[in-house]
Amino acid sequence: MPLYAYRCADCLDFEVQFAMGSAPASLPCPACGAPARRRFTAPNLSRASSSAYRLIESTQRSASEPAVVHSPGPQPGTRPAGNISTNPLHRKLPRPD
Ligand SMILES: [Zn+2]
Questions:
Q1: Spacing, Cα 13 to ligand 1 middle (Å)
Q2: Domains of the chain, start order
């Protein structure tokens, strides 16, 4: 259940849990009993780190909106050019037969 923030004119702010959409516009202050008006705050949308949140978002989005590509993928049986190393030391590494 979400937390709703209230502000008493004389005391401090306080938060109360209500079911979504059922919070009243004002509540009696728990300290002095005066009516405290509901305060509207920015929602806490993301508590995850931004990279984790981006991964979750893109995974969910890919279910209904697949990524648009500008060219077809590599043909079967061909090696993608990006995997070929230009480092001369890699020629000395053992190779599969
Ligand atoms: Zn008060």
A1: 8
A2: 1-59 (2.20.28)
3 C-alpha vs ligand 1 centroid, how far in Å?
Answer: 18
Q: Is this structure's pTM higher than 0.90? A: no
Give the integer Cα–Cα distance in Å for 43 and 41.
6
Torsion angle, CA of 75/77/82/84, rounded to 10 degrees? -160
Which token pair is 18?
A: 């209500």
Using the mean position of ligand 1's atoms as its centre, give its distance from the Cα of residue 19 in Å: 23
Predicted confidence (pLDDT) per residue in 2-53, tens digit? 889 999 988 888 999 888 888 899 999 999 999 999 998 877 665 667 788 8
Measured in Å, residue 15 CA sits from the centre of ligand 1 at 13
